[in-house]
Structure formats: structure tokens, C-alpha cells
Design a protein that fits this description.
Oligomer: heterodimer
Strand order of the largest sheet of chain B: 5-6-7-11
CATH superfamily of the largest domain in chain B: Mannose-Binding Protein A, subunit A
Number of strands of chain B: 11
Distance between the termini of chain A: 37 Å
Strand content of chain B: 5-15%
Mean pLDDT of chain A: 86
Structural class of chain B: alpha+beta
Helix content of chain A: 25-40%
Radius of gyration of chain B: 50 Å
Low-confidence stretches of chain A: none
Chain lengths: ~550, ~775
């Protein structure tokens, strides 16, 4: 028997930087450096003739070849109409993200000499269905078996909880990344990590801080040179300023001021940017994060969670001193900056490791008891329901510990339960009694997942052939909302059996799993026949396009 | 909210409208790619995102015939309206120009050009402007109401500026009128940063709103509380909608700004001023018009100041704004000259250091001798005390000691003199040190650390400073440390704004210069941080040096990188370096071969042998091609050399023919017997490598211009016979045959051939014309008369 369990790697696919981690033979999560020996890799892709270059070199190339470089692609995940054109080919965000994943895996493979097949990828808690699906597809295009998509704050909490399992506490995870902001309240217990509430904005992150600096620099340039040209129209200048702004921001995190130079059209303007100015330019952004945090706390209160023990800051942008200052002022509690660049990847790796342990335990128990285990994810539930005896579990765990050299407690830890909530509400478009189109929410945000909701709809006419279901995503906690407040994410068509009467109830079930995937089933009630549901979404790469992307990816080596 | 017109957005012609589906689809895809690129642009990103999300709608409208037709019509309407909207701007410009009483013809045509209109249309507008005086007064009042009140003096000014009665103005005012100017008492309000202003303006534009007031749907006069309420209501509204598209993001951004801006009266005032500043951009465009000629006439300047004051500026502020603007544009402003202010420069007081020398005490002895000695010593001490120059003091005391070391009874005085001497020396050393330290401080303050170190070193060398030596040395250490710190600071700044090679050089020179520098670790980190950037730079440089074949340069670029880093990039460069080294090696071999070959001078055979030896030893060498080329060159030279030799020999033979043939002009031999002129060289020497067929032969004489003639032709058979077949013979180096002008067609082997008469160069009276196929390779000796 193979003594080693399968390795499942954790990947933090970030807006500006990405990283990959695994759990080593001592049960510790470790970041794997890339070929350039850096622990994080810029999520930047450079199309260099027939080569795809990812990382630092791509980022630096943006100044020279602005039209061949793609950055911040994560912000466009799940956007159906985003297209990057290079040569005669068109690329979707999923495919471009897959190159970043490939680079991470390829370098890690080289570093460890181990083939990477199974991964856990993280995404912001605030990602909706399409964005999550797009993230999963990116992994598949890169050639991985994507075991799970988990939320970044959850991953951070797992990493945080893994340090000290003795304390049970409620933490508020304030995650300000390169492009997204998430705030999440998480209950960390000995045997579970449970998300209570979540909120945020996937269009608010460190880049917005950079953009403010860029805006300021442009203004200054115009002032100094007397030109009213918009220098950002020049892609070279834009990229150059974008990089300068990022550097300036980083320097201002530990120095009170920094020199910046702006070069455009042969003119060069030098200036000193002071931290105070920077904070003035970005005050409203910080204020927005505080607003989201307050709102989230209010929602938690509605669920009877009235306080939290700690605030942890995750994400590179929390290095800006004003963030911790503002949070401390608001909540009267000193936040802890926790491993801002690496916590998420490490948490994902720990999660992956637990999945692998779980798989192995299931295999052992199943061999021992000759019982087929249907849902291997729910080992702990099965023990609770006595489907597996505690003894069988103990023996299997001991064997696993003996074989692998992991300690028994850490193997038993594989039973860690992770509970998530949905960050969005989901509903369908329906007609209310006054015949106005409204959105009727079946799943309300911050409900624990997995969740299964059933709702009856009625056929409108006799012998109706199909029903169109428009699935809507929103961020309210109300059941009925006007249609403008929601976004259509998918449409589903129910093909009905013939000869149904009008007003026949059809039961539609929304099944939202813990990865945020939505499955729809429908049953017509006259003869309880299952009705076929075809879900269609243009937002995510699929079908022929997906196959083509996978094929392209297979033969591709990224640099 | 009204959406953009798709024809205009896609930049498709709308009059007549584009209807070809292929063209439209192409335009959509083009825009889609463009917007996707701009998706993360710092200022245009949100607009781009909005447009990206509109694409399905654009496709729907533009592929539907009826909707598309409607869209095109709307586009035409918008364009027509745009033209109308231009009028207010034109009118403003006319007002400015009319400030001096009239508009000149030149100005009219410039206006017409700027606004792309007919001059007659401009003239119509000018006429219309003359009837709008009262309207303008209203405008000026409205602008001023923004601050909540008007002052008497403002009303007076408005009246004066528009030449109407004060009552006339007052009648139109709908807000309180204050007696005095209050603004002096109000502290200068805080201002919103321009870039924030711009963010707000851009986001408002995206939502089609004119101001944050408009955004919140409240009048500008609403109180702070209602603003705050409205802002938080707006935020809730936005939060509850799940949308995260561009419009929602813009609205959230604005709501965020509302929270910070309507936090206090103070910040709100700042925003109000910013709103007014938006109007300044209008003013800017006015200045642009007034400065069309690169200078601002005094009348224009006044008008513009008036305009700026209308926007709520004080006169001095307005003047400064316009002048600054023109200075940036490098325009001259023509105003009445200012009175110059006098400048006083305070004289710096020079500091002097006075050193008080302690006077030595005197002792009295009863003994005369004692008294004598004592008197001598006291006199000496007095002199010493009176003397100001420390060196002179030392000389005096030393003289005393030397004179009396052997004298009896002086010992105690000598001891005292020595003590005094020591004291003076100590003082002097101290003073020297202090002077040096002061000088060093001064230099260090100015940042001249190196000069400061030199100062220290000179001090250390001058006279051994004894106990101050250590201090001076530690001073040098400290200065070195400061230089290091300064270099490090400069390096840090350079890392932010320098070009890659500058950065690398600076890092390297730092590391070389300061093997134990305090910031070494940080600098090493910097070095590792720019490994990627530096690699990109090297890669680009390599592209260009490779193209130029500058292998040495390529190699040192790689070496420089490899010496600094040991990473995957360095590995890549190592491979390239191998390649460059090989190229350099080959170049060296080539150069050595060339040197060796050159040593043989015109002995081309030996030179060729050098290359051929190499080729047979290394037939697969990379430079084989170049070697072969060299051989070919040499062979050509060899042939040239042979031709030269033949020429010389031919001329020699010619001289031996006696009087008949002579080379009267360069390359042309005249036959004195027939008067015919022959070309000195035949084609075996002028075209040694070519096969001269008959066809070629004819072309050759056709194009020949030798000896200044261009009427050369092929000789007749008897002409050739005249020189070769009857003595004295025309010299011949070898036997060959020449084409003549006579040719025939003959039919043989089933096809037509051209047959030409030829004559050999053999010296013989017994001869005949030989007939040859025109395609053979022969020779030509051209002739003319």
C-alpha cells in the first residue's frame, strides 16, 4: 500500500499576486517559492510572441509592451463580455487566469519534483455563482482536478485556527486584497470553522488606492507642465504610472514620504508624495470598507452574534498603516496583522490536506467494513449518525497515523468541519398578484450552506411546454425585491411533459452546495415526474470554447 | 438615465447609417477588445466596464433593423444638438474679445477656425451678443448667490462692470445683502484635492449628474443633516441591490465621497469651492482663446480677471490664477508694470572666537641673582603673554629653555617655562582641533562629506595632534558612515525612479564601496528584488546587440547578470552566454586567420592556402562560410593582379611593335597604318569571368565607353586580319579568337542557328575566317575610327 497520502495543493489566486502552498511531512503548511525564488508571483500575463510569460517579468514588461500584458484579470472573472485579443486569438478571463495557475504549479512541480494534480483554489467570499464557476474553470483549463473552491477569509481563518486549536473564538477577518475586499465573521472552534456572516465588494482593493495615486500624479503632471493632455491615453505612461503608484503606496506604508517621477512625452516631473496626502486621497475608500464592516456586524447581530474576540487583518493592502489605525479607532480593538500575503494559500493547503486525509480514512474504513461510502465528505456526520462506528474510525485513523508518520491528533483533525454561508441571495423572476415582475428570493444571503429550498410555481396556460426561469443574484435580505436590484446570472428552461393543465404546481428546488454551486431540480406535481432543467450561462466559458482553451493549455509552457 | 447612442459609441457613420452586419459586428468586436483593455484603467476603467456590460444590448439593438434605424436617427439628432450647444461657448469667446470694444477681422477668422463655423455665422453671433447685457447681470448675481449672500460692494462692482445703475442690479437680487465684506474674517477653508475632484467629476459624468447635490437629489441649499441622511439612504439603497456593475460602483464611490464630504460644514465648503473650480475649467478654455497669439493683451487680461471674479475669486487671486496659467503655457501677459518691491538682505554677523590665556603667576625671591633670573623670566613671561601668535610664544619659550639648560639656578624657571610651553601647545592643539571640527561641521552640514574627510585627514597629517587624533579618526568614521547613509538614501530614491541600468550600477557601486556598510543587507535585498526587472532589461538589450552582432557586449550583459544572481533567469542567460562566447571565439579565430593571411601581402596563393588549411582542418566550423567568402575575395584579387600583369606585359609588347601602334589616350591603341582605333584590352581582360557569347559581344560594344569614346563597334574580319595577319603584328598574349561583325543564319539539326565569322589572334599570314555558333564563348576586341 502506498504509505503517502495524495497531496492536494492550496492556491491563492489573487488579483495582483498569487501563491501556492502544501502541507509538508510534519503537517505544517509551507509556501512553495516560484522559479525566481519569490514566495508570491504577480498575477500578470505577458503574451510574448509564442510564449506566455507570467510573474515578475510579465509585470515589468507592462511598461514596454502595454498591449501584450494582462493584469488584474481576477476583476473580470465571470464577466461574459470581457475579451483579451492577442494575435488573432481571443482569450476569456478564465483562460488567462489558468496561465497564472499553470505558472504556479509548474514552478512548484520543479521545486518539489512532484506532479501536481489536485488543488484547492480560493476566491473572495463575495464572489457570486458565475465568478466561482469561472475560477473553477480556470483550474480545469490549467489541467487540474479542482477539489474545491473555498473562500479566502475561510482559508485565512483555517490557517489562523491551525496555529492554536485550544482556544475557541469568534474572529472578524478583514481581508483587503489587491482587487477585492471581504469582511467575514468566523467562529473558530476545536473541530470546526464556521462562517457566520460575510460582506464586501469585489471591486474594491489595493488597486483602487493605486488608482488614486495615479489620478493625483496625472493632475500634478498637468499642473507642472501646463499641458491638458490626458497622459493616461498613452498605454506606456499608464502602465508606468500604475507601477510607480504601487511602489509609492508600498513605500508610504513604512515611510512618511516618497519621491515619484512621472515621465511622459519626453517631459519628466518629479514630486514628493506624502503619506498625509495619500491618506486624504483615499479616505473615502477606507471609509467604504468600514461601512461594509459595520453592515456585516449588523447582519451578525441579526443572527444573534453580538460580538467578536479578535480582528485579524489579511491581504497585502492591510499593510497600509491607516487601515489598522482606522479599524482600531472604529472598533476599539487592536487588530492583528496575520501573515497577510500567505495566510490564504496556507489555509487552502491545510484544507486540501484535510480532504486528502479524509479520502484516505474513508478508503480504509470502507475496506475494513466492506461498506460503500456514498458521500465521503461527511465522515463526521456519518459518525454522528452512527453509519460508521467510532471504533472503525479510530482504528483507521491510528493506521493512517502509523503509516504516514503524522500524529494521531492531527489525523483526527481531518474531521474539521468548515461551514460557510452564501454571500448573495438567489431568487427567480416571478409575477406578483398585481402582475408586476419582481424577484422572489429563495435563498437569502448569509444563510448557511449547503442549503436546499423548495418553492412551488404554477403553469400559466394549459398544455404549457416550457417554463423560463431567470435566476437572479442580489445582496438584500428581503424576500421580494424589485427586479432592478438584482442581476440575472443564469437562465434555465424547464421542458414540461405534454398535456398539463393550467395552474399546475411545479416544485422547483434550489440546491446551493458549500462551494456556492447552484443546482436546480423541478418536479411537476400531477404525476411527480422529474422535469428536465437546462441551465444556460454565457458568463462562464463552456462547451467548445472550453475544450479549445483546455487544448491550448495542454501544450503550453509558461515562463 | 439616458444611455449612450450606439452609433456614436461604436464610431459608425450615421448619416447615411452603416447597415452592413459584418461591418457592425467588426466595430462591436473592436470596441469590445478596446474596452476590455481599458477595464483596469485608473480613470477610464469604470466607463469601460459599463460599456462592456452594454455589449449584449448593443448587439441586440444593432442587429435589429427597426431598432437600428431608430438608433441612427437619434445619433443624427444628437449631432445636430451638439452643434447648437456650441453657441454658448462661442458667445463667451466673443464676449472676451469684445472686452476691448470691437472684434477684429483676424479674431473673427480665428474664432471661425476654432469652432469650425462660417465667419458669417460668427458675425451673427456677435450681433446677438450686444442685446444680452441684462441677462449677463443675472448670471453674475446667480454665481455669487452660491455663497449665500451678496455684499454692497459686490453689487456696486457688478453695476459698474455692466454700466448700469446700482438699483438696477439690486432689483434683481433675491438673497440677503450685507453691508460689509465678511470673507476677511472667515479663515481660509480647506480644499479638496484636485484628483479627488476629478474622481467625483468622472463618476458623476458616468451617472449623468452635475454635482453631488444632484446625485443625492437635493438642492444645494439643503442643510448638512439632510445631506447626511440622503447619503446614508443612498448607500442602503445601493447595498441592497446586488449589482456590482460600473454604474453601481460609481454610485458607491460617490456615496463614499458624500460621507466624507458632508461630514462637516468645513468639508462641505471645500466641496462647494471645488464646484466653483469646475467653472475654472471654463475659464481655462477662455484663457486659451484669449491667448491664441501666444500673448495676452491687457484688455483680455482685464476681461478674464472679471470673469474669474464672477466665479467668486478675489481680484488678486484671479490675477494670480491667470498669470500662473499663462506662465505654464509660456505666454506673455501684457499688464501695466508692477511697482518693484525693495529687497533687504540682512548681513550675517561674523563670529569670532577669543581665547583667553591664563597668566602665570610670578614669584619673588630675595636673592639678587634670583631676582635677576626672576626678572628675566618674568619679562619673558610678560612678552609671551603679550604675544598673540602661539607659534611665536613657543619659539620664545623654546629659546629660553635652550639658552639656559646648562645655566645654574635656572632649573626651576626652565621647568616653569616647559610647563608653560606644554600649556600653550595643549591650547594650540585644542584650538586647532576646534577649528577643524567647526570647519568639518560646516562642510558636513552642507553635505560636503568628502571635503570634510579631507579636512580631517589634513589635520591628522599637519602636526601630530596627540590626544585629538582618536577624536579626528572617529570623526572620519562618522563622516564615512554619513556618506554611506546618504548614498543609501540616494540609492533608495533611485530605486523608485531610476532606469534599470542606473539602479544596478548604483547597487553594485554601493556594494563595492561599502563592504561593511550599515545598509548592506537592505541593498542586497534591493538587488534581489530587481532581479526580474533587470532580466527584462538585459533581455531587451540582448535583442539589440544580437541584431548588431556585438557579441562581446552581449556576453558582458549576460555575465553582469549571472555574476549577480543565481536564479532561473541567470540559468537562461548562461545558455545564451555560451552561444555568445562561441561567437566571440569564432571571431577571434577569424581575426587570427585574417592577420596571418594579411602577412602574405599580395602573395594571394599563400593567403588562400591559410584559409584552405583551416577549412580542411575544420570543415564544419561555424565560420566556414566566412572563410569561403574570404577565399573568393582573395581569388578575385589574384585574378585582378594577373590582369594587371597582363596589361603591363601587353603595353611592353606594344612598344616593341615599332611606330605602327601607339596608345595615344589611355586604353586606346591607334593603328597609324589604317587610322583605326582599337581598345587596348580585349574582353578576356575586361570581363575575365564572363562567357562572351555573340549576343553579349554586341551588347558589350554597344555599352562600351573607353578612352572617352562611346561609338565602339565589332570589327570586320578584314580589320582584324589587318592587325593579326600582316606584320608588324598587333601583340597577342595568348592565342584566342575574336567575334566579327559578320553573322549568318543557318539551318541545321532541325533548327535555326546563328553563325558568326571569327578571326584568331595567331600571328600568321596564312589564315582563314572561322565560322562559329553564336552561343560559344569568345572574345571581343572593340574598334572605332
Amino acid at each position: 500500500m502506498d504509505k503517502n497520502i495524495k497531496r492536494i495543493y492550496g492556491i491563492d489566486l489573487g488579483t495582483t499576486y498569487s501563491s501556492i502552498a502544501y502541507v509538508d511531512e510534519y503537517g505544517k503548511a509551507v509556501i512553495i517559492p516560484n522559479a525566481e525564488n519569490e514566495r508570491v508571483t504577480p498575477s500578470v500575463v505577458f503574451f510574448d510572441d509564442n510564449n506566455i510569460v507570467v510573474g515578475e517579468v510579465a509585470k515589468e514588461s507592462a511598461k514596454l509592451y502595454p498591449n501584450e500584458v494582462v493584469s488584474f484579470i481576477k476583476r473580470s472573472m465571470g464577466e461574459p463580455n470581457f475579451i483579451f485579443e492577442y494575435g488573432s486569438e481571443q482569450y476569456r478571463p478564465e483562460e488567462i487566469s489558468s496561465y497564472v495557475l499553470k505558472k504556479l504549479a509548474q514552478d512548484a512541480q520543479q521545486h518539489l519534483g512532484d506532479k501536481i494534480t489536485d488543488v484547492v483554489i480560493t476566491c473572495p467570499a463575495y464572489f457570486g455563482i458565475n465568478e466561482r464557476e469561472a475560477t473553477r474553470k480556470a483550474g480545469e483549463i490549467a489541467g487540474f482536478n479542482v477539489r474545491q473552491i473555498i473562500n479566502e477569509p475561510t482559508a485565512a481563518a483555517i490557517a489562523y485556527g491551525s496555529l492554536d486549536t485550544s482556544n475557541e473564538k469568534t474572529v472578524l477577518v478583514y481581508d483587503l486584497g489587491g482587487g477585492t475586499f471581504d469582511v467575514t465573521m468566523i467562529d473558530i472552534r476545536r473541530d470546526s470553522v464556521e462562517v457566520i456572516c460575510t460582506g464586501g465588494d469585489h471591486n474594491l482593493g489595493g488597486k483602487d488606492w493605486d488608482d488614486r495615486i495615479v489620478g493625483y500624479l496625472v493632475e500634478k503632471f498637468q499642473e507642472e507642465t501646463g499641458s491638458d493632455e490626458d497622459i493616461l491615453d498613452d498605454p506606456d505612461t499608464w502602465q508606468d504610472l500604475q507601477l510607480s503608484a504601487e511602489k509609492a503606496k508600498k513605500i508610504l506604508s513604512h515611510r512618511p514620504k516618497t519621491p515619484v517621477s512621472i515621465t511622459h512625452g519626453g517631459q519628466r516631473v518629479k514630486l514628493i508624495l506624502e503619506r498625509e496626502k495619500f491618506e486624504e486621497l483615499t479616505e473615502d475608500l477606507l471609509e467604504r470598507t468600514v461601512d461594509f464592516t459595520r453592515e456585516m456586524i449588523q447582519s451578525a447581530r441579526d443572527k444573534e452574534f453580538n460580538g467578536f474576540d479578535e480582528i485579524i487583518l489579511v491581504g497585502g493592502a492591510t499593510r497600509m498603516p491607516q487601515v489598522a489605525e482606522r479599524i482600531e479607532k472604529e472598533f476599539n480593538m487592536t487588530p492583528k496583522v496575520f501573515d497577510p500575503d500567505e495566510a490564504v494559500a496556507k489555509g487552502a493547503a491545510i484544507y486540501g490536506w484535510k480532504l486528502a486525509l479524509n479520502d484516505d480514512l474513508v478508503r480504509r474504513i470502507s475496506e475494513k467494513t466492506n461498506k460503500k461510502i456514498e458521500h465521503p465528505e461527511n465522515l463526521s456526520e456519518m459518525i454522528e449518525k452512527s453509519e460508521i462506528s467510532a471504533e472503525d474510525f479510530k482504528t483507521a485513523a491510528q493506521e493512517l497515523a502509523n503509516d504516514t508518520g503524522y500524529t494521531l491528533p492531527s489525523v483526527e483533525n481531518a474531521m474539521l468541519r468548515v461551514k460557510n454561508v452564501t454571500s448573495k441571495s438567489f431568487g427567480v423572476v416571478a409575477h406578483n398578484p398585481t402582475d408586476e415582475e419582481i424577484v422572489f428570493n429563495l435563498v437569502i444571503r448569509n444563510t448557511a450552506v449547503p442549503v436546499n429550498v423548495e418553492k412551488k410555481f404554477f403553469t400559466a396556460v394549459e398544455n404549457q411546454k416550457t417554463v423560463l426561469i431567470r435566476i437572479m443574484e442580489s445582496e438584500t435580505s428581503d424576500i421580494e425585491i424589485p427586479i432592478e436590484q438584482a442581476t440575472e446570472i443564469k437562465t434555465a428552461i424547464l421542458h414540461l411533459p405534454p398535456n398539463l393543465p393550467a395552474d399546475l404546481p411545479i416544485e422547483i428546488t434550489f440546491d446551493l452546495n458549500d462551494e456556492g454551486q447552484l443546482h436546480i431540480t423541478a418536479v411537476e406535481t400531477s404525476e411527480s415526474r422529474q422535469v428536465q432543467v437546462v441551465v444556460d450561462t454565457a458568463s462562464v466559458i463552456s462547451g467548445e470554447e472550453l475544450e479549445k482553451a483546455k487544448e491550448r493549455s495542454q501544450s503550453l509552457v509558461v515562463h | 438615465m439616458e444611455r449612450e447612442n450606439f452609433y456614436l459609441l461604436l464610431e459608425l457613420p450615421c448619416d447615411p447609417p452603416e447597415t452592413d452586419p459584418d461591418v457592425i459586428e467588426k466595430a462591436i468586436t473592436k470596441k469590445q477588445t478596446e474596452w476590455s483593455r481599458l477595464r483596469n484603467h485608473p480613470t477610464k476603467g469604470l466607463h469601460a466596464q459599463k460599456y462592456i456590460n452594454m455589449i449584449p444590448e448593443i448587439r441586440r439593438v444593432m442587429t435589429d433593423d427597426a431598432l437600428r434605424a431608430k438608433e441612427a436617427e437619434a445619433a443624427r439628432e444628437i449631432l445636430a444638438k451638439d452643434k447648437e450647444n456650441k453657441y454658448p461657448e462661442i458667445d463667451r469667446h466673443i464676449d472676451i474679445l469684445m472686452g476691448k470694444g470691437h472684434v477684429t477681422q483676424e479674431e473673427k477668422s480665428k474664432l471661425a477656425r476654432v469652432h469650425s463655423l462660417d465667419e458669417s455665422e460668427i458675425q451673427n453671433r456677435i450681433n446677438a451678443r450686444k442685446n444680452v447685457k441684462y441677462h449677463r447681470i443675472d448670471q453674475q448675481i446667480t454665481l455669487r448667490i452660491a455663497k449665500g449672500y451678496l455684499t454692497e460692494s459686490e453689487i456696486g462692482k457688478i453695476a459698474k462692470r455692466n454700466s448700469v445703475k446700482v438699483e438696477e442690479v439690486r432689483k434683481r437680487v433675491r438673497c440677503p445683502i450685507l453691508k460689509t465684506e465678511k470673507e476677511d474674517e472667515v479663515p481660509q477653508p480647506r480644499q479638496i484635492d484636485r484628483s479627488i475632484e476629478k474622481t467625483i467629476r468622472d463618476n458623476l459624468k458616468l451617472l449623468n449628474k452635475s454635482s453631488l447635490y444632484d446625485f443625492l437629489g437635493l438642492p444645494e441649499s439643503a442643510d448638512l443633516k439632510s445631506m447626511q441622511d440622503a447619503a446614508s439612504r443612498k448607500k442602503k439603497e445601493l447595498a441592497s441591490s446586488g449589482k456590482k456593475d460600473a454604474v453601481a460602483t460609481a454610485a458607491s464611490t460617490l456615496a463614499g465621497h458624500c460621507v466624507t464630504i458632508f461630514k462637516s460644514e468645513q468639508s462641505r465648503i471645500a466641496y462647494d469651492i471645488s464646484l466653483a473650480r469646475t467653472k475654472l475649467s471654463e475659464l481655462d478654455s477662455d484663457i486659451d482663446i484669449a491667448g491664441i497669439n501666444g500673448r495676452l493683451r491687457p484688455e483680455y487680461f482685464e476681461t478674464l480677471v472679471g470673469k474669474a471674479m464672477d466665479f467668486g475669486m478675489e481680484r488678486s487671486e484671479a490675477e494670480k490664477y491667470i498669470k500662473d496659467y499663462c506662465r505654464r503655457k509660456k505666454w506673455t501677459v501684457e499688464t501695466a508694470p508692477d511697482k518693484r518691491r525693495k529687497l533687504f538682505i540682512g548681513a550675517a554677523a561674523a563670529a569670532c572666537v577669543l581665547i583667553v590665556v591664563a597668566s602665570a603667576g610670578a614669584y619673588f625671591y630675595i636673592s639678587h641673582q634670583h631676582r635677576m633670573r626672576e626678572t628675566e623670566f618674568n619679562e619673558l613671561m610678560q612678552q609671551v603673554n603679550e604675544e598673540r601668535d602661539a607659534r611665536a610664544k613657543i619659539t620664545m619659550l623654546q629659546g629660553f629653555i635652550e639658552n639656559h639648560t646648562s645655566g645654574d639656578g635656572y632649573s626651576r624657571y626652565i621647568d616653569r617655562a616647559r610647563a608653560r610651553l606644554d600649556e600653550i601647545r595643549t591650547n594650540m592643539a585644542e584650538e586647532n582641533y576646534k577649528n577643524m571640527a567647526a570647519a568639518v561641521d560646516k562642510l558636513a552640514e552642507k553635505g560636503n562629506f568628502r571635503e570634510a574627510i579631507t579636512e580631517c585627514r589634513q589635520y591628522l597629517q599637519k602636526d601630530p595632534p596627540g590626544r585629538y587624533a582618536k577624536k579626528a579618526e572617529s570623526m572620519i568614521t562618522e563622516l564615512d558612515r554619513q556618506i554611506e547613509s546618504r548614498d543609501f538614501e540616494e540609492l533608495k530614491n533611485l530605486m523608485i525612479q531610476g532606469a534599470t541600468p542606473e539602479k544596478i550600477d548604483a547597487i553594485t557601486s554601493y556594494l563595492e564601496k561599502y563592504p561593511d556598510g550599515a545598509h548592506r543587507e537592505k541593498v542586497e535585498k534591493m538587488l534581489s528584488e530587481i532581479s526580474g526587472e533587470y532580466f527584462v532589461y538585459v533581455k531587451n538589450q540582448l535583442d539589440s546587440c544580437e541584431a548588431d552582432g556585438k557579441w562581446q557586449q552581449c556576453a558582458s550583459l549576460c555575465e553582469n547578470y549571472i555574476n549577480r544572481y543565481d536564479n532561473s533567469y541567470a540559468d537562461k542567460l548562461k545558455i545564451r552566454l555560451e552561444k555568445y562566447r562561441e561567437k566571440i571565439k569564432q571571431n577571434k579565430i577569424m581575426a587570427a586567420l585574417q592577420r596571418k593571411a594579411n602577412d602574405f601581402g599580395t602573395d594571394y596563393d599563400s593567403a588562400i592556402q591559410v584559409y584552405e588549411d583551416y577549412l580542411s582542418a575544420y570543415p564544419k566550423s561555424e565560420i566556414a562560410g566566412r572563410v569561403e567568402k574570404k577565399i573568393k575575395e582573395l581569388e578575385k584579387k589574384k585574378k585582378q593582379k594577373a590582369i594587371e600583369a597582363s596589361k603591363t606585359q601587353f603595353r611592353k609588347l606594344l612598344e616593341q611593335t615599332g611606330q605602327r601602334y601607339s596608345e595615344k589616350s589611355e586604353g586606346v591603341v591607334t593603328d597609324s597604318k589604317t587610322g583605326l582605333m582599337w581598345q587596348l584590352l580585349d574582353t578576356t581582360l575586361t570581363k575575365p569571368d564572363e562567357c562572351i557569347t555573340y549576343e553579349k559581344a554586341r551588347q558589350y560594344v554597344e555599352n562600351l565607353s573607353a578612352g572617352g569614346f562611346n561609338d565602339w563597334r565589332l570589327p570586320k574580319a578584314e580589320e582584324l586580319a589587318g592587325i593579326y595577319k600582316s606584320p608588324p603584328y598587333f601583340p597577342a598574349l595568348e592565342n584566342k579568337w575574336y567575334w566579327t561583325v559578320e553573322s549568318y543564319s543557318s539551318y541545321s539539326d532541325g533548327q535555326w542557328q546563328k553563325i558568326v565569322d571569327t578571326v584568331s589572334s595567331e600571328h600568321s599570314t596564312n589564315w582563314e575566317v572561322e565560322r562559329r555558333d553564336s552561343r560559344q564563348c569568345g572574345a571581343v576586341r572593340a574598334v572605332r575610327k
